[in-house]
Specification:
2 domains; alpha/beta; 9-stranded parallel sheet; globular; TIM Barrel; two-stranded parallel sheet; 14 helices
Length: about 375
C-alpha cells in the first residue's frame, strides 16, 4: 500500500509539474512562432540608420505569457532584452483578458473563454480565474513590477513620464517606456466605475472590442455587426473626460462610425493591415482608415500574414507603403501584434530588417524614422495627460 501511495503521489506531482510548468511554455512556443531563417542581409545604410532610431510599437501581448521578460527567451517574440536589441524606445503592452473558443476573424460569440484555462495553468492569482477585470489589473501589476525590477524600464502614464524616458535615452540607450492598454473593454464588466479602476492601475489606452461583441457594442469578429450601445457611449464620454486613448482595432465598422461621430479625440487602430492592399475582414474599410487619419489618428501595421497577406519583411514593408499611400506618412506606425498568437518572420530583436526593407521600398531616412517610431512618440506626447 505504501508503495502504491508513493507511486500515486509521484504521478500526481509529475502531472502537476507538466501542467503548471511545461505545458504553458509549450503553448506559448506553439502559438507565438518566429519562422526559422538565416540572418537577414542588411545594407550598411540601414544598419547605421537603425542605430539612431527610436522604435515604437503599438501592440504586444507579452503580458499574456509567463516567460520571464527580463531575460532573452527562446520562445515568443518579445522580452526586454530583445526589445532593446531592436532599438525599441516605446512599447504598448496589451492586456488580453478573454478569447472565445474557436477564435476566428468571421464570427464569434461571447459564451466561451479560453483565457480561464490559460490563467489556471500559468498560475495566475485565483482572483483572476473568474474575473475579467482582475485579469487586467493583474497584467498591470506584472508590468509595474517589471519596472520595479529594471531601473531603465518605465511604465508611462503621463506626457512627463514619456518625456523623462526620452531624455534618459540621450545617455542611456537602454531606457524604455511601456504603456498599458486593454485588448477590448470587457474588463469594465459593464460598470462605468471600472474605467477609473483601469485608469488607477495605469491603463492609458483602451481597445473597445476584441473577438466578440461586448457590453460596449459590436466586434469586427462578432455576430451582431452593431454599433455602440448606450453603455458604450457612456464609456466613450468617460474616456474623453479622463483622457484615455481609444483603440478601435477590433471594432465593427459601425462602432468606428459611431465613435467618430461622437468624439473629436484622435483614434488609434493599433494593429491592422490595409483592406485595399490585403482584402480580408480583419482590415476595416479604407474609407474609415482615412477618416481616422483625418482626425489625427494613428494606424499601426501588423507583421502577420492574416493582415498583410505576406508576412516576409518585404511583405510587411509593402503593407506599410500601402498605408502611407492611403492615409499619409504622418499617420502610419508599427503595430506588430507580437505574442498575439501569430507567426512572424522576425522578432523584436530584428527590427533592423524592417528599416532595411523600408529603405529598399523607397522611403527616405526621415520617412523611415517617422514610421518606425517618431509618429507614435509624437502621438503619445500630444495625447497622454500632461501629468
Amino acid at each position: 500500500m505504501r508503495i502504491f501511495l508513493a507511486v500515486c503521489v509521484a504521478l500526481l506531482l509529475a502531472a502537476a509539474g507538466f501542467i503548471f510548468f511545461i505545458l504553458p511554455a509549450r503553448i506559448d512556443a506553439d502559438m507565438n512562432v518566429v519562422t526559422p531563417h538565416e540572418p537577414y542581409a542588411l545594407s550598411d545604410e540601414a544598419v547605421s540608420l537603425h542605430d539612431t532610431l527610436r522604435v515604437a510599437d503599438l501592440h504586444s501581448d507579452m503580458l499574456l505569457w509567463m516567460r520571464d521578460p527580463t531575460r532573452w527567451n527562446d520562445r515568443g517574440h518579445t522580452d526586454l532584452p530583445r526589445l532593446r536589441a531592436g532599438g525599441v524606445a516605446l512599447q504598448v503592452f496589451s492586456s488580453v483578458t478573454k478569447t472565445p473558443s474557436g477564435q476566428n476573424y468571421d464570427s464569434n460569440t461571447a459564451d466561451s473563454d479560453d483565457i480561464t484555462a490559460l490563467a489556471i495553468v500559468q498560475r495566475w492569482p485565483m482572483r483572476t480565474w473568474d474575473s475579467i477585470l482582475e485579469r487586467a489589473v493583474y497584467h498591470a501589476d506584472r508590468l509595474n513590477r517589471l519596472a520595479d525590477r529594471d531601473n531603465s524600464f518605465t511604465v508611462v502614464r503621463t506626457r512627463a513620464d514619456l518625456e523623462a524616458v526620452l531624455a534618459a535615452r540621450e545617455t542611456d540607450p537602454t531606457a524604455m517606456a511601456g504603456l498599458l492598454e486593454t485588448e477590448g473593454a470587457h474588463p469594465l464588466e459593464g460598470q462605468i466605475g471600472n474605467v477609473d479602476v483601469l485608469w488607477d492601475a495605469g491603463y492609458r489606452m483602451l481597445g473597445l472590442q476584441h473577438f466578440f461583441d461586448n457590453e460596449l457594442g459590436g466586434s469586427l469578429h462578432g455576430v451582431s455587426e452593431a454599433g455602440l450601445t448606450d453603455f458604450g457611449r457612456e464609456v466613450i464620454r468617460r474616456m474623453d473626460e479622463r483622457g484615455l486613448i481609444i483603440d478601435v482595432a477590433h471594432s465593427s465598422p459601425q462602432v468606428v462610425e459611431d465613435v467618430l461621430a461622437m468624439t473629436d479625440s484622435p483614434l488609434v487602430v493599433s494593429h491592422t493591415g490595409v483592406h485595399g492592399h490585403c482584402e480580408v475582414k480583419r482590415n476595416i474599410p479604407d474609407a474609415l482608415m482615412q477618416r481616422i487619419a483625418a482626425g489625427g489618428g494613428l494606424i499601426g501595421i501588423g507583421f502577420w500574414a492574416d493582415v498583410t497577406c505576406d508576412d516576409s519583411p518585404e511583405g510587411v514593408a509593402a503593407a506599410i507603403m500601402a498605408a502611407i499611400d492611403l492615409v499619409g506618412i504622418d499617420h502610419v506606425a508599427l503595430g506588430s501584434d507580437y505574442d498575439g498568437t501569430v507567426t512572424t518572420t522576425f522578432d523584436a530583436s530584428e527590427y533592423a530588417v524592417l528599416t532595411d526593407r523600408l529603405l529598399a521600398a523607397g522611403l527616405s531616412a526621415d520617412e523611415v524614422r517617422q514610421v518606425m517610431g517618431e509618429n507614435t512618440i509624437r502621438f503619445f506626447l500630444e495625447n497622454l495627460p500632461a501629468e
